[in-house]
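FAQ: What does the model actually see?

It sees only this:
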Amino acid sequence: MALIELRQLHKAYGVVQALRDFSLSVPEACLFGLLGPNGAGKTTAMRILATLLGPDRGSVQVAGVDALEDPRAVRRLLGYVAQEVAIDKILTGRELLQLQGDLYHLGRSDRNQRIDDLIDRLAMAEWIDRRCGTYSGGMRRRLDLAAGLLHRPRLLVLDEPTVGLDIESRSAIWELLRQLVEAGTSVLLSSHYLEEVEALADRMAIIDAGTVIAEGVPEELKRRLGGDRLTLRVREFSDPQEADRVRALLEPLEGVRQVVVNRAQGFSLNLVIEGEPVVERLRDRLAGAGVPVFALAQSRPSLDDVYLQATGRTLMDAELAVAGQRDVKQERRKSM
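And it is asked to produce this:
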């Protein structure tokens, strides 16, 4: 039986549909990554799983417990570390962890032993007895993670745990997550960092517009693409018309598929190729049409290519689209 079963979740905020028929199955003792741009629905799904938000419809089960019927039982099973860190600035880090332990009704000796263990594992000894108001972002994130782990949950839910962190803090968190999974803890981690999901996840799902569009083992998802990924620039900065013209030239070629215009990178083109002579035929086709080649790069498929295959745009394009929508909304508010 899977540890987490989310089935056909729907959630709307007014006219904005955050989740659409969202379904996900997460096995035991696994680090499961949710990859998607900001605004894809990752945080909404995690808040529903953590019983902090109710879906409009759908079902949520954790270890066989219905989270909608018995949220208190589910809360005992999981630790939740939100994207936004909220820490009392007056307390020291140790005092905050002691308060967290008291809220979970841990005995004093057990509580203090667990705190000392987490301080050591997250390299917090040098600053744990300073007031939280003096902490950097990386320190606060490590303390927040320690608070989520203090009651030794069966499932740890992390929403963008390393956004904006320095390399040292990110490395400490990555190492701890690997240790937790080896010890049998299940981890559900959301991220829009490709390298983070690729480095940590045993299994993953790609989220776009509130829906799971691909799911599986990262390497297997990349193998399904087949062939190599080719990135082509006909000039340093092209335009939509030229990019569309080049795409029309390349799509009929044998061995070429999934030709996508990458707007985020100067209207370059991404495509999948299969077979050795394809690059030479591609160069000949462009030369015959009088189209220059500014740059051509060939590589094995990546998770970004998996996202591109599923959605027709790169993860960077998706991030820029969300940022653009946010800017438009802010401008409208200012003009009202």
